[in-house]
Amino acid sequence: MSDESKNSETADIDPNASPADLKAAADDILKSAPKEQAELSPEEAMQKLEIEKEEMREQLLRTLADLENTRKRAERQVTDARIYAIEKFAGDLLSVSDNLGRALSALSEEDRNALSEPGRNLFEGIEMTQKELHTALARHGVTAIAAEPGDAFDPNQHQAVANIPSDQPNGTIASCFQPGWKIGERTLRAAMVAVSAGSAN
């Protein structure tokens, strides 16, 4: 609006006018001002409210979905923290299990039968120690990975260190050199295996 228009609107207002006259002049100015938005009909108002209600409903559903995802993510993090908190400690214990296994496999069945009573007691003590260690590991979610001859080779759980002729089907496990372990669903240490190349004949 130009200064001339402003002056024309205020020119008719007498500064010395009474409050009633000033109010009447203000009402005239307000009536002459263009309305920013026409009043809605009842049907249009109802339609607008329905749209706003649907928008609020969708926003509420999105918020609830976000909250549910946050809750599930927090639960998963707590569960993972509980399961995998001992991952490093469990990994350190695997060498203990390996050494116990080597001690037990050092003697053949014939040599075991030839042991004196103190020797048998020592051997049985090693067996019990290994069993208790594995039980304790299992109690905390640490379990051995299956790697028997004929089992399918799984690159996520098995590490192939050799490919040898074998009576086992081609591509399956022929033999296991070192047992593997997992904690929960995560591989803690892959089993070291030889993969069968099929029969040499």
TrEMBL record:
Keyword Iron recorded: no
Membrane-spanning segments: none
GO biological process: protein folding
InterPro entries: GrpE, GrpE_CC, GrpE_head
Listed GO CC annotations: cytoplasm
Location relative to the cell: Cytoplasm
Keywords, alphabetical: Chaperone, Cytoplasm, Stress response
Feature: compositional bias, Basic and acidic residues: 24-38
Matching SUPFAM superfamilies: Coiled-coil domain of nucleotide exchange factor GrpE, Head domain of nucleotide exchange factor GrpE
Listed GO MF terms: adenyl-nucleotide exchange factor activity; protein homodimerization activity; protein-folding chaperone binding; unfolded protein binding
Region (Disordered): 1-48
Described function: Participates actively in the response to hyperosmotic and heat shock by preventing the aggregation of stress-denatured proteins, in association with DnaK and GrpE. It is the nucleotide exchange factor for DnaK and may function as a thermosensor. Unfolded proteins bind initially to DnaJ; upon interaction with the DnaJ-bound protein, DnaK hydrolyzes its bound ATP, resulting in the formation of a stable complex. GrpE releases ADP from DnaK; ATP binding to DnaK triggers the release of the substrate protein, thus completing the reaction cycle.
HAMAP family in UniProt: GrpE (MF_01151)
The protein's assembly and partners: Homodimer.
Similarity annotation: Belongs to the GrpE family.
Cited PANTHER family: GRPE PROTEIN, GRPE PROTEIN HOMOLOG, MITOCHONDRIAL
Protein name as annotated: Protein GrpE
Source taxonomy: Bacteria, Pseudomonadati, Pseudomonadota, Alphaproteobacteria, Hyphomonadales
Gene: grpE
